[in-house]
Every structure is written in C-alpha cells, then in structure tokens.
Amino acid sequence: MTDALKVLKLKRICEIESGTFGVLFFEDIPFCLTVERRWFSNKKGESCIPAGEYICKPFDSQKFGATWEVTEVPGRDAILFHKGNVQDDSHGCIIVAEKFGVLNNQTAILSSGEAFSEFLEKVRGEKTFKLVVVSI
Q: Which of 2, 15, 94, 134 has minimal Cβ neighbours within 10 Å of its Cβ?
C-alpha cells in the first residue's frame, strides 16, 4: 500500500498590473496568499506557470535555502516557493505571504516569513506533494 500524495491547491483570484494573486489551500482550507508574475505565455523568468497539476520536490536553493521546486512545468525549471512581497520578487516562482497590502504604490502581499514557515510545516516530512494550479 502506498501513501497518497498531499495535495496543495493554488487558486488564482485575480491578475492585475501588480501581479497574479492567489490563495493556497491545504485539504480545502486556505492558509496563505500568493503572488506570481502575470501571465506572459509561460516565458521563463517572466511569467507565472500554466494552470495544471505538478509534482513538487524538496530543493536546496543557494539564495532561498531549503524550499520546494515545482517540477514538470513545460519548458521551465527552478520554479520555487519562497518569501517575497511583490511580483518583482518572483522570476516565475510562487511567493507566499499572510495578507494583502501596498508597497511602493503597488498591490503586494505581506508577512511572508510567517506564511513561508506555515507552508513548510504543511509539507514537512513529505518526499513530494502535488500542486494543483487553477486560474481565474
């Protein structure tokens, strides 16, 4: 008997000039907010990833430390979950935080450190998990 993969669901709720904003769910319960780059035809480093299902694996980033990588994205790699506040903090990655706010006159997400810790706690002890991305 094999253990079922944990599933996290990223539901994108809006795309505006300041980025693509979403809510991350675990077991159908929302637990943090996200910001990604706006859709730009899946262009590496400049676009959010396409809606779909992906496998996430642990990743030791030189810049961000221990985190998770979203794998199996067509034509893309090094898509990580990490801390940040605005879409410019992401080069195609998924930024997590606790609340909406404004930084430098643009819509942002805030309290990223707390959200990232909660994200890591949700997937602690896992070898992989499934990410389901649903666009608006």
A: 2
Among the listed residues 70, 77, 72, the one whose alpha carbon sits nearest the alpha carbon of residue 119: 70
Say how far apart CA 25 and CA 33 lie, in whole Å: 9
Q: Are 58 and 66 in contact (CB under 8 A)?
A: yes
pLDDT digits (tens, 9 = 90+) for 22-67: 999 999 999 999 999 999 999 999 999 999 999 999 999 999 999 9
> Is residue 115 within a helix (H) or strand (E), and if so which, with residue range?
helix 112-123
**Ramachandran bin of 87, using left for φ above 0, alpha for ψ from -120 to 50, beta for the remaining angles:** alpha
H-helix or E-strand containing 2?
Answer: none
Q: What is the pLDDT of residues 77-112, one digit of tens each?
A: 999 999 999 999 999 999 999 999 999 999 999 999
